[in-house]
Amino acid sequence: MTRIRVLAIGAVLVLLAAAFAAATQAGRSHGDKGRSAKIAIRDDCDPSDPTWATVGGCTLKRGDVTLAEFLGELDSPLAASVIGHQAWRNDPSYLEVKAGSSIRVKNVGGRAHTFTEVAAFGGGKAANPALNEGLTTAPECPGSLDVAPGDSIKLSGLAVGNHRFMCCIHPWMRALVKVKEHSGKKH
Ligand SMILES: [Cu+2]
User: Do residues 61 and 72 touch, judged by C-beta distance below 8 A?
Assistant: First the structure.
């Protein structure tokens, strides 16, 4: 009886391993196809810094940037407009896709962001003027939709050409998406 049970468990394990291998294979091929069509919205807020809670919180499990550090990186003595902490960025910030592709944009950071298409890069919607220093508000930003930490959006139906996306909260977080003709040759 015990032996039969061991054999049965063994058979189940073999089946599970086969199913897992098949799923991994499927995931890999899907991942390859989708790899060039994913953008991660990143930040690195430090959840152990309680001051983040005063400005909306930080949902990351691990992060290394305190609010004080973030604010210290907003500007540079050599620039007239906001620079911004470089851990707050879109990854990649330049992406080429073929026409008809969709792009999944996921907020893997611990703060709210937006991924808003704009005709021209400019300032955002944050109430804190330091986040938009020296920038003219992009007209698409007021009323733009926040992407909460862990949430994702899907972009599809983008016309051939260049598309500019920015975070309307942290306007230095930009991305340029180049949509190429489906038959276009790679050069
Ligand atoms: Cu942002």
Answer: no
